[in-house]
Design a protein that fits this description.
Blueprint lengths: L1 H8 L4 H12 L3 H13 L3 H25 L6 H9 L3 H28 L11 H20 L1 H30 L16 H10 L9 H5 L6 H30 L2 H6 L4 H5 L1 H40 L10 E2 L2 E2 H16 L2 H25 L9 H24 L1 H28 L1
Antiparallel strand pairs: 1-2
Helix pairs in contact: 2-11, 3-6, 3-9, 4-9, 4-11, 4-16, 4-17, 5-6, 5-16, 6-7, 6-14, 6-15, 6-16, 6-18, 7-14, 7-15, 8-11, 8-14, 9-17, 14-15, 16-17, 16-18, 17-18
Length: about 425
C-alpha cells in the first residue's frame, strides 16, 4: 500500500508536464534567435514564428500518439527505433539528435555570452563573449555532476520567473505600442518575400524544439491517455502565441536599425522604450536565468540521449559507463559544446540546429504515419507533418546556401558524419562477430 502511494506521488501531474514542454521551448531560444529572425523576415517576423509554430504543432500530434504507445525515457530515440528498427539509418538519426542537443547548448551559451557583458563588462571587447559563454557551460556541468536534483530545482524556478517576466514584457509592450511610430513596421509593406518569411521561420525553428522533452517524461505522466495530449498541445499553442506577440511587440517598439545593432540581445533593447534602463536590466537578467537553466537541463538531456543510444547498441557500449557519478556522455557533451560555442557564430549554430531538428521531426512524423495503425492514430496528420518538415528543410537549405553557405555546409556535414560514424560502428561490430 505504501509503495503504491509512493508511486502515485512520484507521478508527473498535467501542470508539471506542461511546464516541461514550455520550459524546453522557452529556454534560451527566444533570447538567442529573435534578432536573427527580424534580420531575415523584418516586419513579417511574427508570421515567421507562426510558420515554425504550426510545424511544431502538427509534429506534436505524432509525438502524442507515439508517447502514449511507447512511453519511454528514451523519447525520440525509442520512436525512431520503433519506426526503422536498429539500423544504420535509425542510428544515424539518433546520433544527430545527440549532436543537435550539443548545438542547442551552444545556442544557449551564445545567448548567455551576448547578454552578460551588458550587465558587467570584463575586458570591454569580444573576448567577454567567449569568457561568459564558456564559464556558464563549465558551471552548469559542475552542477550536473554535483546533483541532478539541483538541476531540476533550478529549471522549476526558472520556468516561473522567466514566464512572469516575458508575460509582463508582453502586457507592458502591447500598452506601449499605442502611438509608437515604429508600429508601422508591422505593416505588410515591411514584410520580406513569402519565401524569405518561411526561411526566417525555419532558421529560428530551434526555438520550438523543446516540446519533445515531454516524450522523455511520458512514462511518469499521471493519467497518460488524457494528460499526454494536453501537455503537448497546450504547451506548443501557448508558446506559439507568446513568441508571435513578443516578435510583434519588439518590432513595434524599435526601429529596424536599432534591432540590427542589438541583434544578439534585442529583447533587452526592446524593453528600453517602455521601462528604460530598468527594463533593459530586467530582461537581461531573465535572459541569463533562462539560458543558464536551459543549459543545465540540456546537458542532462544530452547525456541521457547518448546513454540511450549506446544502450540500444547504436554507439559503443562504453558510453553507458560513468565518469564520476554521471554518464560519460555528460563530459563529452559539455566539452563539445565549448568547442562549438567558441568556433561558430550564432547564425551558423541556429541554422545547423534547425536543419538537424527539422530532419529529426520529419523522421518522427514519418514514423507516426508508418505506425498509424499500431498507435491508433490518424494517417493524414503525420504525413502532412512529414511533408511540412521536409519542405521546410529543403527551403531552409536552398535559401541559406546563398547567404550563409558555411552554415549550410556545416549542417550537412554534421548529418553526414552522424551516418558515417554509425556505418563504421556497425561494420566494426559485424567484423568482431
Amino acid at each position: 500500500m505504501k509503495e503504491t502511494q509512493n508511486n502515485k506521488n512520484s507521478k508527473i501531474k498535467l501542470k508539471d508536464a506542461i511546464s516541461i514542454g514550455i520550459g524546453g521551448m522557452v529556454g534560451g531560444g527566444i533570447f538567442a534567435v529573435l534578432g536573427l529572425a527580424v534580420s531575415l523576415s523584418k516586419g513579417g517576423t511574427p508570421l515567421a514564428f507562426l510558420f515554425a509554430g504550426i510545424i511544431a504543432l502538427v509534429t506534436s500530434y505524432s509525438y502524442v500518439n507515439l508517447s502514449k504507445k511507447y512511453p519511454d525515457r528514451g523519447g525520440t530515440v525509442r520512436f525512431v527505433n520503433e519506426g526503422f528498427g536498429k539500423t544504420i539509418f535509425s542510428g544515424g538519426i539518433n546520433n544527430l539528435l545527440w549532436i543537435s542537443y550539443i548545438i542547442m547548448l551552444s545556442l544557449y551559451a551564445s545567448a548567455f555570452g551576448s547578454y552578460a557583458p551588458n550587465l558587467f563588462k570584463l575586458t570591454g571587447n569580444g573576448i567577454d563573449f567567449h569568457i561568459y559563454a564558456s564559464a556558464i557551460v563549465i558551471i552548469a556541468t559542475a552542477i550536473n555532476y554535483y546533483s541532478i536534483k539541483i538541476v531540476g530545482k533550478i529549471e522549476s524556478f526558472a520556468v516561473i520567473i522567466k514566464l512572469i517576466i516575458l508575460i509582463s514584457f508582453v502586457i507592458i509592450g502591447i500598452y506601449g505600442l499605442f502611438g509608437n511610430p515604429n508600429l508601422s513596421q508591422l505593416s505588410v509593406s515591411s514584410w520580406e518575400a513569402p519565401l524569405n518569411l518561411l526561411t526566417g521561420g525555419m532558421v529560428i525553428f530551434v526555438a520550438y524544439e523543446g516540446f519533445e522533452l515531454i516524450a522523455n517524461a511520458a512514462p511518469d505522466i499521471e493519467n497518460p491517455e488524457i494528460n499526454i495530449p494536453k501537455a503537448y498541445y497546450y504547451s506548443v499553442i501557448f508558446v506559439i502565441i507568446l513568441y508571435v506577440v513578443i516578435a510583434a511587440v519588439t518590432i513595434g517598439s524599435l526601429p529596424f536599425k536599432e534591432i540590427a545593432s542589438a541583434q544578439d540581445y534585442v529583447l533587452a533593447e526592446a524593453a528600453k522604450p517602455m521601462l528604460g534602463k530598468i527594463g533593459f536590466t530586467i530582461i537581461t537578467v531573465a535572459a541569463l536565468l533562462s539560458t543558464f537553466s536551459a543549459i543545465n537541463a540540456s546537458l542532462y538531456g544530452g547525456s541521457r540521449v547518448s546513454y540511450e543510444i549506446a544502450e540500444d547498441d547504436e554507439l559503443p557500449h562504453q558510453l553507458t559507463g560513468q565518469l564520476w557519478n554521471q554518464p560519460i556522455g555528460l563530459f563529452i557533451t559539455a566539452a563539445t559544446t565549448l568547442i562549438v560555442t567558441n568556433l561558430l557564430n550564432l547564425k551558423t549554430i541556429s541554422t545547423a540546429g534547425s536543419v538537424g531538428f527539422l530532419l529529426i521531426f520529419a523522421v518522427v512524423n514519418y514514423t507516426g504515419f508508418k505506425l498509424s495503425s499500431e498507435i491508433k492514430g490518424n494517417k493524414v496528420i503525420p504525413f502532412i507533418g512529414f511533408i511540412l518538415c521536409s519542405a521546410a528543410l529543403l527551403v531552409l537549405i536552398v535559401q541559406q546556401y546563398t547567404s550563409n553557405k558555411s552554415g549550410v555546409i556545416i549542417a550537412l556535414s554534421i548529418i553526414a558524419i552522424c551516418f558515417i560514424i554509425e556505418l563504421i560502428y556497425k561494420k566494426v561490430k559485424m567484423k568482431k562477430k
